[in-house]
Every structure is written in C-alpha cells, then in structure tokens.
Specification:
With 436 residues, the protein is an alpha+beta fold. It contains 16 helices and 20 strands. A six-stranded mixed sheet has the order 13-12-14-15-17-16. Strands 1-2-5-4 form a four-stranded mixed sheet. Helix 7 runs antiparallel to helix 8. The N and C termini lie far apart (72 Å).
C-alpha cells in the first residue's frame, strides 16, 4: 500500500487524494514527518474537518475516504485512507484540472491531451486488455515476470524497488486493477501470469518441408514474457543465420500483436532454408500489408502489452516491424513473405546465405538447397550411423528420385558409402566406413 507523510493539513492536500484515488489507493498520515517521526496534531478533530471540507470543495466526484485518529506515544495523528475506484477524480468544476495519478511512489500531473487520453482509455476500455477477470491477484503468480524484469536491460523508473512495490508496478501497466476491496487480474494480467493458459510451440526440421525429419519439438506455456525469453534462448544457435535482431523482432511481434480472444498458439518453425513465425489473429480492420509497407498509421492491438515490452527492452516501440523485415532483405532476390489468412498472420524469413547466394548469381540455383540436404543427411547419419533411401525421403521431404540423385552425388564426392544391392542398399558416412 502506498503511504504519504504530511506534518499538517495543507491547502494542496486534495492533490494527494486525487492521485491516490486515480491510482491504486493509499494512505496519507498527517502529523508525521517524511522521516516517519511522530509530530502529532494539536487539534486532530479540527484537522479532520479541514480535510473533509477541502475535499468537498476541491475534488469531483467526492473520493471514497476514511479518516481515522491514531494514538502513538501520547500523540495523535490522522490516517487518511483513500480507496481507488473506476471514477476519474479531478479538480471540481473543471474537465481535467489537477488530474493527478499516483504511479508507485510518484505523483504525476497529466498535462497533455495524449496523457489524459491514455489515462481515460485505461479507465473505460474494458473490452480488451484492461477488462477484469475473476482471478484474484497473487504475488507468487508473477515470479516469472518479476525475474524477467530484474534481469532486463532497462532503466525504466517503474521497475526500481519492484520487490517492495510489486502491486504498484503491475497496477501502473493495468496488469491488475482494484475491484471490490482487492486486486484482480485484468486480461493482460492473465496473459502475463505464470498460470497463463496461452501456449507457443517451436519446431525444427532437417529439410525444407514439414514432411522432413523433425529434429526438435518444444512446447511452452505460462507467462508470455517467459515464453518469449525461452524461445529466444533456443533460437540462439540459428539467430546468426538471419539479419541482425530480425528474429527477436518477429517473435516479439507474434506475441504483442496476436489476437488473444481466439484459440491458437504462436508457432516458430525452423526449416533448413527458412524460418516461419505464425501468430493467431489477422490485421486490425482498415490495415493491409501494402498500407503498412507504405507507412500507414501505427495501430496496436494490445497497446498496454506493447508498452511493457518496450520498457523491458524487447522491442524499440517504433511500430515499423514489417517494414524492417522487408528492408532487411532489400539486397537480395529472395524476399521474406508475410501472409495474412482468415485467422492468422505468418512471416517467412529466408536464411541469409540463401539470400546472398541468389543475389550474387542473380538467379535461383539449387546449390544451396542441395548443400542443405547434404548437411541434413550427414547430421542424420552422425546420429543413426546408416540409412536407407526411404529414411532419407522422410528426412528431406523430397521424392525418391531426388534422394537418389543427392546420395549419388555424395557418394561420388566420397561423403557417403553405399552398401548392398539396390533394393536393400544402405548409406553410411565415408569416414565412418573407413574407421570400421
């Protein structure tokens, strides 16, 4: 709970009450110094009446306040308990005069139209992120988010002393809201909690098709910030194969801009020649890929979530992610592909060396694809020692005749050794055969 200390009732006390009422509530202790020394009040009843009188004259609507006289060491102080509600509290007879909001230990005066609009949006936009759930807030359910924030490369003031001010920080992002005497998770809070039902998946194939050998399957759940962190950790081995920082940007976009009102998982699929990242939901009405490429207005489906990701340093917040993806491949003929379906958006990112190969030759060749196939076969044989033609078909996801051509070339290059007759022929690595 936020606590403010005042040695006496001042004529600006109402501003502290407005800030608490527009924030998450709090207590003002009158008769105590900032160092928490007990000063006491000579006439506490008169001071109490002065507080009520000031609030009735200066604040609209009248805030929900309870004043209690507290006796400490023979002295009397006043404890002014302010409850936060869904109302917007301001100076009486004004639209937005003295509109203060308390975020953590700081009181902020909303001055600009954008600041006021953002505050009002949080108060009244209940159909999306800010909508209340039926889940009571539990601090232990945000340990994952807390760990991410503690380790984040950020200087955001809100995150300072978070261990002591966890409720204030979460409330400032509208992750939790005060409702009927307790903090309750918003929809945003339900996505960020460790108990979140959102899921994501990462798959890695040895070849260029989903029918090739699946080398890895990873399923993630829990806080979506934790999911992003775990996915990026697993992508470290392939991240250098794509334009710098583009993989993280694409993964973050998949979580920040997805439609959480529909079923589905964020998916990251790694093929030998590309990566595909898909997110549930489609573009916001009025937007298209072409309009975004041309610099259309920035419209965020989940602005509160986006603001948190910006403060965590996971994205720069410029809102030009799609244009960054397109521009990152401007030097090559092989382009990324962004597809919008009825219920999903997917981004296809070619590997860098494939883009460079196509660009240098100014034409498409199968060399890179064949090299990728060769690497996949050799990787498989390192683990399984030998393989039949039918095994290699499953790994590469290509036709039997194509497999025959690839392994024939590899035998000619002394990369593989063919053992046995045609129908029962198996293949092994050349160096393995020599060692045997």
């Amino acid at each position: 709970m936020n606590i403010e200390y005042k040695d006496k009732v001042t004529n600006k006390l109402y501003r502290e009450v407005i800030a608490f009422a527009n924030g998450t509530g709090g207590i003002i202790k009158i008769g105590m110094s900032d160092e928490k020394n007990i000063l006491g009040l000579e006439n506490p009843l008169a001071e109490e009446n002065a507080v009520y009188d000031q609030l009735s004259k200066m604040v609209e609507p009248l805030p929900l306040v309870e004043i209690i006289q507290e006796h400490i060491d023979g002295k009397v102080i006043l404890e002014v308990r302010v409850t936060a509600t869904e109302h917007v509290y301001r100076q009486r007879d004004t639209l937005f005069g003295d509109l203060y909001v308390r975020y953590g230990s700081k009181k902020q005066l909303l001055k600009t139209a954008d600041e006021v609009h953002g505050f009002l949006r949080l108060r009244y936009l209940d159909e999306s992120e800010n909508a209340l759930t039926n889940t009571t807030f539990r601090a232990k359910d945000f340990s994952g988010l807390f760990d991410i924030i503690q380790n984040a490369n950020t200087t955001t003031d809100r995150f300072k002393n978070m261990q002591e001010n966890l409720e204030d920080v979460l409330a400032s992002y509208s992750i939790i809201r005060w409702n009927n005497g307790e903090f309750v998770l918003t929809r945003l809070g339900s996505w960020l909690a460790d108990s979140s039902h959102t899921r994501s998946v990462l798959l890695q194939y040895s070849g260029d098709r989903s029918t090739s050998f699946c080398q890895q399957v990873s399923d993630f759940s829990g806080s979506i910030v934790t999911q992003v962190s775990r996915i990026m950790t697993m992508l470290q081995t392939v991240q250098s194969l794509y334009p710098k920082e583009l993989v993280q940007q694409s993964v973050v976009n998949a979580f920040v801009h997805r439609d959480y009102s529909i079923e589905g998982d964020v998916s990251v699929i790694i093929f030998a020649n590309r990566m595909e990242i898909a997110s549930p939901g489609t573009l916001i009405k009025g937007l298209s890929i072409e309009s975004i490429k041309k610099g259309a207005r920035i419209v965020r489906r989940n602005p509160l979530l986006h603001a948190l990701f910006v403060d965590l340093g996971l994205t720069d917040g410029r809102g030009d992610g799609i244009r960054q993806i397109i521009d990152s491949y401007s030097d090559g003929d092989e382009k990324p592909k962004i597809s919008v379906q009825k219920d999903s958006i997917s981004v296809r990112l070619p590997r860098k060396e494939q883009v460079e190969k196509v660009s240098n030759n100014n034409q498409r060749t199968s060399t890179h694809q064949e090299m990728t196939h060769e690497d996949a076969i050799m990787s498989y044989l390192l683990e399984h020692k030998h393989a039949k033609n039918v095994d290699l078909q499953k790994i590469l996801g290509v036709s039997p005749s194509r497999v025959t051509q690839i392994v024939r070339d590899m035998v000619t290059k002394n990369q593989l050794v063919a053992i046995g007759e045609r129908k029962g022929r198996i293949y092994t690595l050349a160096n393995t055969k020599q060692e045997e």
